Amino acid sequence: MTAHTPHTPPFRDRRLPFAKRIDDLLSRLTLDEKTGFLHQFTPAVERLGIAAFRTGQEALHGVAWMGPATVFPQAVGLGATWNPDLVRRIGEAVSKETRAMRARDDRVGLNVWSPTVNLLRHPLWGRGEEGYSEDPNLTSAIATAYTRGLRGDHPTYWRTAPVLKHWLAHNNETSRDVTSSSVRPRVLNEYDLRAFRATVEAGATAGVMPAYNLVNGRPNHVSPYLREHLRTWTDQDLLVCSDAGAPSNLVDSEHYFDTHEEATAAALLAGVDSFTDHGTDSSKITARIRGALDRGLLTESDLDAAVRRQLSVRFRLGEFDPEYDPYALTGDFDTPAHRALAQEAAEQAVVLLKNSAGLLPLAPDTRLAVVGLLADECKLDWYSGTLIHRSTPLEGLYERFGAQRVDFAEGVDRILLKTSAGAFLHVPETDAGDEVRGAEGALDPALLAGRTDLPALTAGPAGTELALVDWGEGVLTLRGPDGRYLSVAEDGRVRASADQPGGWVVQETFRLEPHANGHLLRHIGTGHHVSVAADGVRVAEHDPEVFELIVVERGEDAVARAAAQADVVLVVAGNDPHINGRETEDRTTLALPAHQERLLRGARAANPSTVLALVSAYPYAVDVAALPAVLWTSHGGQAAGTALARVLAGDVSPAGRLPQTWYAADADLPDLLDYDVIGGRQTYLYFEGTPLFPFGHGLSYAAFSYAGLATRTADGSLHITFAVTNTGDMTADEVAQVYFRAVDPTVPRPRRELLAHGRVRLEPGERRELAFEVPLSAVDFWDVARDGWRREPGTYEVLAGASSEDVRLRTTVVLDGEPAAPRPVLRRGLPAADFDEQSGVAIVDRTKSSGDAVTAAGGGSGELLYRDCDFGDGVTEVTVTVAGEGTVEVSPAGGPVPAVLTSKAAGTGPYDYRTLTARIIAAGVRDVRIGLRGPLRLAHVGFSG
Predict the structure, then answer these.
(1) CA-based nearest residue to 887, from 907, 904, 866
(2) What is the 8-class DSSP label of residue 6?
(3) Taking phi first (over 0 means left), then psi (-120 to 50 degrees means alpha), and beta for anything else, what does residue 884 get?
(4) Which residues of 706-723 are buried (b: 16+ CB within 10 A; e: fewer)?
(5) CA atoms of 877 and 844, how far apart (whole Å)
């Protein structure tokens, strides 16, 4: 008898194209099984041999949340390298470690939620550490490199499947789930969409994640832009994964829909394929989908489209062809190559902002005082893995210069806390071990609980000296003698138990509140005050303790003593990534916290040879006039200290460049919620003031000359060449930057805009010819008069140099294009959002599914300007499409009187539009001004007669 081989279903047949295999698998899934695929945690389909799957593995600068992994510099630090090749190699290392970690822990996912492509429009955004740059070109270059590394180079199978975050126009944490970013068409197309588009078109992106916020009045999770823009940029199936809890927000906080069934259906139809909600519990989402199906809001074919996109990713990851998956046996984890790469990245991310006296690099025999709150810290952020290796600036300098030549003063205030009964807070002696938060890994680290295995603080005659740090805004941390921070666990007791401040809700921060003759100590995480009871110290709603704060030593005194005895002082200042600026919390100021300002002033007063090293996720506005040298680096990962020490010693010449403008003062900043980079004159593209340090700025220990700038156009591209020579006496990298500007534009255009860049390493005396090819479309702008891209004919200036303001070479090129044409208002009318200028106006949703309208912000008054409207031989009638109550005033320039149209549609909804008509006289080409009075929405203005 002959044994027959069991039939291989087509979805298991690797000879077939993925599309046919997915068709077959879809046909075998039941409706309930398809419904299960739509939650983040997709259950197994055992009858078909299909494993469980989850979307989402954080990997912003290393594998995050799943325990020990190689930790690279923060994303903003990777942006500061201006080095796509380096970032591609980092992506490769991260994806290899993801594969290696999954081999031993199947909680680790291969659908990685990274990189973050949001532009760093505003320096007070709490999540600025997650982005690469304020410039779309640089952001897309770095993001594309990272996704290519994450993807791998096999033509069929992917090592990991990266998802870009966060679609779209998302730069505020304050009320992020209910605020709407008003984004005019030019800003949408020229700024916010550009970084996403270029990265998606590069072909190494598996999908995107919508952001929590609304854009033009509509939640991103039901955005028509997913269909109108994203899915038109590639032929690949892109997987759209919701952000955590965002599907429920559509009803619960945003109140955009009345029921969760309506909201879930709308999100699915808009393009969301995987719903991240309620953690690992998929029952609520699947129930909502079934409810939507029962109500006819969805069809099975709608589910098929979403399931197909998830399956497309899973097939590309090799799940259905394990024996042919080229990455299946990847085991590279914490290798010497990865450690070296982490150090290389940290070195390349260091930016030398000032070196006026040639104080750097430090001489080998320098006696150094290292001071400051971050001098002996290697900080992690919310999207970091757990450190395997750790290097602080102090440790790096000890290693490089010898501990005998380096003195240290942290600069914390040393205090005792005395109770009203005369006792002192006491930290019991115990062996806390070396446990660190998150070392075991967690699918949701927000659920990690604080330690309860250690004794709570007590009060007694012998007090414990605590290290107090004021991080600004009155936010304090308190640290015990063993280096552990005072923290509050779920039982409400106060313990010295945390290795660092951290967690989704930070439990290690406090405020001192003046009260009577002392202070109350409020725990910020719970909102309760610290109370002292017989069984120990806890936080409670009642009976707060009144403490006397006894300062044993002021931090600035210790810093001054160390500084006075040194040849050079290094002040290491900056932020803790979990405090005063992080996910859920925007910063309120560019200023360095007052505690650190005092330390800096004290060091400078004691020793003029003071170097400031800012280690931070954000720019600061610091008075650098009296400082001979200033550096900045992001939190640089596991090799941060070694890298900084090598740069200070001159082993490596600094070549990092600022990826965003450093403004001189808060007064230079727009409102955090003003997303109009053109009208608000934001970022280096439009800012007309004098920055503290400009975009692209960074100095070197070498010197470079530029020569021979030449341009030519051919085959739809602009070719740019010039030479860079290292005229210094040490090997160093130079980041050559190419910008353009329209010389005589007819609409507001950037002061200059990055076209291309290259980071090159040159030996002393070496000359390198650089060549760049840029598509001519890079100089196009979005013409609201024609609702499309246009290249303005005329003269463009091409600039080459070392930063956006350090221009070494200039030339001009004359480009052909399409001349400006007046608005064809007789044919198109005026779509209300296609204005040229506005004041006091917000863009809102015309309907819940598509379209824009405008309204006066806050229901007050707003003004709109539409230039060069062509009325031909003349019109006699104007028609406005409006919803709600209010008045529209339409005023053609030179007209006799404005047309005033008043809507008295009381009691109607925001989407109940009506048409109003009035008489108007206009002919020829002229500007039109429109005034909005009251809370009505204006969608369109038409002319006839």
Answers:
(1) 904
(2) P
(3) left
(4) beebebeeeeeebebebb
(5) 26
Q: Are 72 and 94 in contact, with CB atoms under 8 Å apart?
A: yes
174 SS3 class: coil
Which residues share a beta bridge with 354?
A: 630
Residue type, 678: I
**H-state helical runs in 492-554:** none
Torsion sign, CA atoms 537, 539, 542, 543 = positive
Beta strands in 608-672 (DSSP E): 610-615, 629-633
**Amino acid identity of 925?**
V
pLDDT of residue 432: 74
- A 10 A CB-CB count for 868 gives 16
Question: Which residues, at least 6 apart from 32, have a Cβ–Cβ distance to it below 8 Å?
Answer: none
Q: Which helix (H) or strand (E) holds 265?
A: helix 260-270
Neighbours of 931 (CB within 10 A): 17
Taking 70 as the pLDDT cut, the residues of the chain under it are: 1-6
- Please report how the helices 300-316 and 18-28 are oriented relative to each other, as an axis angle in degrees rounded to 10: 130
Closest CA to 403 of 367, 361, 360, 359: 367
Distance of CA 655 to CAs 80, 133, 353, 677, 799, Å? 9, 16, 10, 28, 20
User: What pLDDT score was predicted for residue 430?
Assistant: 85
On whether the CB atoms of residues 616 and 575 are closer than 8 A, the answer is: yes
Q: Which two tokens stand for residue 444?
A: 């949701």
Q: How far is CA 902 from CA 461, 859, 891, 944, in A?
A: 76, 15, 15, 19
CA distance 278 to 247: 10
Give the percent of the chain with pLDDT over 90: 95
Cα 283 to Cα 333: distance, rounded to the nearest angstrom: 36
Cα separation, 149 vs 161, whole angstroms: 10
The distance of Cα 725 from the centroid of its chain, to the nearest Å, equals: 35
Kindly state the tokens that stand for 422.
Answer: 């005369």
pLDDT score of 753 = 98
Q: What is the DSSP string of 899-934?
A: EEEEEE-TT--TT-EEEEEEEEEE-SEEEEEEEEES
Nearest to 667 by CA among 76, 120, 124: 124
Contact by Cβ (8 Å): 647, 732:
no
Q: What is the pLDDT of residue 1?
A: 39
Total H helices, total E strands in the chain: 19, 48
Maximum separation of any 2 CA atoms in the chain, in Å: 101
Pair 226, 185: CB distance under 8 Å: no
C-beta separation of 191 from 119 below 8 A: yes
Give the gyration radius of the chain's Cα atoms. Answer: 30
Per-residue model confidence (pLDDT) at position 370: 98
Can you give the pLDDT at residue 91?
98
Instruction: Measure the CA–CA gap between 232 and 53, rounded to whole angstroms.
Output: 27
CB 570 within 8 A of CB 649: no
243 among known catalytic residues: yes
- Strands 913-922 and 875-883, by their bridges, are antiparallel
Edge-to-edge strand order for the sheet containing 368-371?
Answer: 351-355, 629-633, 610-615, 568-574, 368-371, 406-409
Q: Compute the distance between CA of residue 860 and CA of residue 96 in angstroms, rounded to an integer.
A: 55
Render pLDDT for 452-478 as a digit per residue (tens, 0 to 9). Answer: 999 999 999 999 999 999 999 999 999
Of the listed 135, 243, 499, 668, which one is catalytic?
A: 243
Joined tokens for residue 638 = 């596991």
Which of 657, 632, 629 has the alpha carbon at shortest distance from 644? 632
pTM (whole model) above 0.90 = yes
Q: What share of the chain is helix, strand, coil (3-state, %, to 5)?
A: 25, 30, 45
Taking CA atoms, 736 is separated from 395, 772, 799, 802, in Å, by 33, 11, 11, 5
Give residues with Cβ within 8 angstroms of 96, minimum separation 6: 159, 330, 332, 333
CA pair distance 375, 391, nearest whole angstrom: 11
- State the pLDDT at residue 6: 63
User: Six-digit token pair at 785?
Assistant: 């008069």
